Amino acid sequence: MPTLKPSAIPRSLGAVLWGISVALSWMWGLGLFFSVQFTTQFGLFGLLTFAIPNFLGLLVFGLVTHHLARRQSGSESLAQFFTAWSRPFRLVFFLYQLLAITLTIFAFIRYAWAPLGFHPELLFLPLTMLVVLAAAILFGEEFDIKRIKFSHAALFLILLPAVVLLTVHAMQKGTGPMGFPKLPTNDWNYWGYAVPIIIGFLVGPWLDLQQWQRAIQMHRERVSIAAGYIIGSSLFLALILFHGLTALWALNWGAGEFIREGITGHNYGQEILTRVFANASPWTFAAYAVFICVCVLTTLDSGYIALKWFLQSNASTSNHPIFSLVPPKLLTTPIPAYLLAGMVALVGVLLRFELEFFMIFYATFFVGYSILAIARCYIVSPANAIPQVKMFCIGSIAVVIFSFGYFLRSPALQIVGSLLPLAYVVWLLVKPSSSEEFVSDTRELDATVPQALSKPEESVVGAASPVTMLDGGPPRAYDIGGYFEDKWFVHTLVATYADTNSVGNVYFGMYAMWVGKTRELFFNRVMPKFNLQNTPFYILTRSFEHKFIRETREFETVRVKIRVASYNRKFATLEHEIYDSLGQMLGKGQQSLLFVSSTDYKMLDIPPDVYAAFIAHT
Q1: Coil, helix or strand for 258?
Q2: CB burial of residue 177 (10 Å; 0-12, 13-18, 19+)
Q3: Residues 398, 473: one domain?
Q4: pLDDT 10s digits, 305-364
């Protein structure tokens, strides 16, 4: 069945489709159910306090990434920026995503399934968890990032009738006889919640792999990131307001009787809509179930795809010894992470935990990392890496302070716990000794034990040793044999006198030579056992084309990128791009390869060895 290529979709339609996907992927367990909880506590004003910062955080993320993508030319500019920018935050990205998945699974089981009262819980709750995981993994495997906007658009069309039916049901029943009493919004108790919400949600999207993957893919498809996120954040705000206003309507019709006291002594009402609609007509309950299931599914499948992309990217670019000890498929699949998230969520449900227990980390621990991540978008030095131990300690202290404030009902401690990471990051950036606090990415993340312990004069540079180059910024480490960035194979070199012509510019023919060398290194990486002495086939160049965009000079650091763009039964097409140290594209092009027998030079189909080597990089 033919599929619609992204290039065949009008950009305006692409922005709408991506906007829908952005909105649904951000309707995770936290936003979905805490909108009900905060409405039960503080009414309409509380709902707006929760929804508006959430909306603004998502919108600002889209506008800023749109600007970051346009700072350099090329469809891969944002992907290249993310690769370099995200290196110090790799573990934080993983923890953020894992907790978001855990929280969403927990919220669905705790507030959408458990209130239905199926017993025994030890039988039904694990089965529910397994069904949720299976659905998330199935959709994650079926729809990659290029196609997820279509699946989310289809699910959105299923969600809309459910929203309309629930709205009609509420309008037919009208306003209840009396409003549910809400807490005041002019005291410290309110600000003890409002300040962490405002801080946490304004910077929340910056550590969400789902949003970064969407922004990068939009830019690759030449869709305006700003337009996509304006649409997406607006749809998200509408869905949040719909859910919160529905809760407000339900409270006026007696849903307050379903508010319960948790193990901490606080009142909780996240599941009041489930209980209200479970007692309504089957069609109304089915509509609400569709709404909840679509929101949860589109978050979990997005998380699966984003986590898979993240794990594969790190596995292909890292030289850590663990990657030679553990099967690559085990390291690059999100399934173990999802199983862990499901088990933690299930334990949390059985222990009668609440959503706020997980939310604490987003209002405290991740705040400092998010603020520093935003700073690194514009501050090249000294914030070119992060003091990992100090950041972890301050985040942990903030979690403890906020937890004491929450359990002891001390709004002051809750506010301090949220502001502490923010204040600490500002102090790190402005204090006089800030340059000593930030270390090289290479020393922080990539140094192996022998490199870290050996003296400089004992270091031996081998065939695959890293070489440090200056590219107008802090030193970076490159593998002289090339390395992978997602699907791109990258070779970094320094142009020298031999590469230039009589006027000092790099000679035009050298660009093709560099591409050829990069291609040879790529072949050597993906087909290390290829041997000209006994090979049954040869790889020949059928055509080569290159577009010159900019010129470069002697001693400039040059990055040559090559990837498998497409293939059919007979031919393979390689695409290449060349960049200077500032990330400016010097040129791009493509080449077509064919395959012939080594004995009689007759054309062959793509040999199985080549197909197996190339297929992982298309």
Answers
A1: helix
A2: exposed
A3: no
A4: 999 999 888 766 555 555 555 566 777 889 999 999 999 999 999 999 999 999 999 999
Question: What CATH number does residue 337 fall under?
Answer: 1.20.1740.10
Residues 430 and 351 in one domain: no
Asked if residues 494 and 560 have their Cβ atoms less than 8 Å apart, the reply is: no
The whole domain housing 515 covers 467-615
Helical (H) or strand (E) element with 469: strand 466-469
Q: Check: pTM over 0.85? Answer yes or no.
A: no
**DSSP assignments along 36-85, one per residue:** HHHHHHHHHHHHHHHHHHHHHHHHHHHHHHHHHHHTS-STTHHHHHHHHH
Torsion of CA 348, 354, 359, 365, to 10 degrees: -60
Q: Both 100 and 226 in a single domain? A: yes
Distance CA 577, CA 575 (A): 7
* Cα gap 58→26, rounded to integer Å: 8
**Alpha-carbon distance 269 to 38, whole Å?**
9
Using the structure block, give the residue that is written with the tokens 């709902």.
47
In a domain, 386, yes or no: yes
- Amino acid identity of residue 592, one-letter, is S
**C-alpha to C-alpha distances, 26 to 208, 438, 612, nearest whole angstrom:** 9, 32, 37
410/493 same-domain check: no
The per-residue pLDDT for range 202-236, each reduced to its tens digit, is 998 999 999 999 999 999 999 999 999 999 999 99
171: helix, strand or coil: helix
d(CA 301, CA 143): 8
